[in-house]
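Running co-folding for adenosine monophosphate.
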Amino acid sequence: MLIEKINAWAKLCPERIAHRQREKTLTYAQLKTSSDALAMWLDDQRERGEIRRGTPIVVYGHKEPEMLTCFIGCVKAGFPYIPVDSATPPERSRQITEVSGAWIVLSPQHLPEGIVQTGIMVVDDLVVDQEGNLGLAGRDNLGKSSFPLTEWQVPEYKMRTVPTCIQEDEVYYIIYTSGSTGVPKGVQITLRALESFLNWVNPAFQPEEKNEVFLNQAPFSFDLSVMDLYMSLSMGGTLWSVDKDQIANPKELFASFYASGISYWVSTPSFAEVCLMDPSFKDTLLPLVKRFLFCGEILTHDCASKLLQRFPQAQVENLYGPTEATVAVTTLTITPEILRTFNPLPVGEVKPDALVLICDTDQLSAEIAAGGGSLPHRPEAFPEGKQGEMLIAGPNVSVGYLNNPEQTGKAFFTWQENDVTWQAYRTGDAGIVKEGLLFYQGRLDFQVKLHGYRIELGEIEENLRQLQRVENAVVLPIERRGKIDYLQAFITSGKSVEDEFAAVLALKEELRQHLPEYMIPRRFKFLDKMPMTPNGKVDRRTLLGGQQ
Ligand code: AMP
């Protein structure tokens, strides 16, 4: 089991660095000692506060090694964790804490005001010392300490036995993704789902035990980071995080790459594309890199071929999958032969214990609804060459969105086959099988990927409509050279806008209270009225036409 493996590395190679972020490090021994202490402390709080096992815990921060202590400590105590990156606006962080029903927020940072609603316990400024001892400074969100303000790991915690950690069918982590109704959705991933992912990628990509350094580019609140974090921890590797300030400063970033010893590169293709703009991004900068693992958005032919030219010793993998199916379900090694044969690139073959079916899901919807969320049989898949919606089924599929039966009912369903219950997810992705390989063919709804970030346009629109000066809002992706370049908002406000420049600045500022920076539209256009189609929907095509 995953936690046992991580504990075993602490015994076998206690001094090996499990996580590095700049000069801050956490060894496997420190991770074990500090996460055990946290688990025992949480168990004590659970008893005192009569907290139900399985109630989520928010872990707030940005790539600090202590975040790993928090993740593993929560899981060891029987609580799933919700990673929230500190770049998230306070209002959105508060919303996630609230809708998830979290009972405590843990953070290595000092929590800013307004992130936590009343009644929730806060442990911030959490530190791990050289010996792996844990320093906790606790308070409730009114600033009053609800337990001794600084509670270093005291002998009694060493005496307690570590509580029962998360079991296979229990939720291990919850990741919040953009929600079209205006509220983010919490994808619940069980230990079984996570292990099904690891049992596939570790043998497939063959990291050597105790020998690899994994790049961590994505914040822990994005499921791409699950790949680097847990491939690394399960194989005794070193997770090597680059933080947002390093990413914003290419000179510093490249200097740190040189010293990193990265052997497994895990990132969005967008991040690699930015790095490739610098000619020094090649094998002399990262001589040990063996594999590039990409997921989360289209890997372009251009990006893959440049990487193969500049890193002839490395393999490039195109993985495909949504957060709801635990990071990825298909992969393809991009060889020169693949590059010669395909453009766009396929996303490859499906992991052995899962299914990807191309279906007519509109037809399925009625049957699923009639069956109360389950089908009496396996959905019928289209033959090769016919496009449809991709359905993913298998042990890696999420059990649904936390506290959100409505959205869960729309996206997830089950069917029974030879005593096995298949859990299935409607991806909203269009796909096709050709020559035995799966191809991604865009979205069937209003979800987009911008620089690797998953965004429901409906969530931005809903947040805009909440603002005083906005009557109606539509947000559209504007493409350049076949890729989404930025988002544009079209607004009606019911009255004439005199100073458009000032109005746009004000709208952006207000939106920033609720949405992360990557969701703020770059351009705004005020309209007297929305163009409508004959059947009464907003005419997005006309709006887009006006842009070109
Ligand atoms: P996320 O949940 O953030 O990982 O986003 C999942 C969505 O990203 C999928 O439903 C796809 O639309 C898109 N996606 C993931 N991997 C790929 C890929 N290799 N190629 C194209 N799109 C991808």
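Result summary
Residues 177, 223, 295-299, 318-323, 347, 427, 429, 440, 443, 449, 454 surround adenosine monophosphate (CB under 6 Å).
Residues 452-545 form a domain with the GMP Synthetase; Chain A, domain 3 fold (CATH 3.30.300.30).
Job closed.
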